[in-house]
Amino acid sequence: MTPAYILRPMTLEDIPQVLQIDRQSFSTPWSARTYEFEINNRDSSYLVVVEAFAPEPERPGGLRGLAARLRAPAPGAAQVVGYGGCWLIAGEAHISTIAVAPDYRGRGLGELLLAAMLRRAINCNGDYSVLEVRASNYAAQALYEKYHYRVVGRRRGYYRDDGEDALLMEVRPLDEAYRQELDARLEALRARLNFVDYFTVPDR
Predict the structure, then answer these.
(1) Of 57, 47, 58, 54, whose CA–CA distance to 103 is shortest?
(2) 46, 132, 149, 178: which is the annotated catalytic residue?
(3) Is 144 an active-site residue?
(4) Which of the following is catalytic: 46, 83, 144, 149?
(5) Euclidean distance between CA atoms 195 and 52, whole angstroms
(6) Which of 5, 84, 144, 202 has its CA 20 to 30 A from that of 100?
(7) pTM of this prediction?
(8) Strand partners, 196
(9) Which residue has the higher pLDDT, 163 or 65?
(10) How far apart are CA 111 and CA 18, in angstroms?
(11) Is 132 a catalytic residue?
(12) pLDDT score for 99
């Protein structure tokens, strides 16, 4: 069965699509140069994208159908619909960003990106994970709590655009018991989303 989604490391060729989602998601998006730096920083930076395959539309037969097929993208063409970033330094997996294209929100792709980054961190000997989240972003906080993050601090005026506070959240330890629970969640997501995974394996 053809997968609906592919999870894989971000490449330089993905940057234009990632920038578009970034601008649709955040008031202070990263620059193309920042993404280039992070992609090339292979020692501690792990960026992931999720691609979606557009279903092949039904087309009429005959000459009209042939003309439509010639104009259409190649069957199986995929587009980047979400991305995430994680820094792994001295055992700390810092989730730096997660975003999903507006048309693909509410499907579980944000959860998939988070779970995949945590699994990659465990594979690369991460001991614990931290992240910042807007104090008003209750939906994101609920997702992080589902993965056992808890609030351990507050960073006043953290967001430059409006001065909103960030909650510092942490989950620890990323031990064997956590790995087993994470794997079960990834399998449930695989059954629901029909994705293939080229990201969580340690070697790039």
Answers:
(1) 54
(2) 132
(3) yes
(4) 144
(5) 9
(6) 202
(7) 0.88
(8) 6
(9) 163
(10) 18
(11) yes
(12) 97
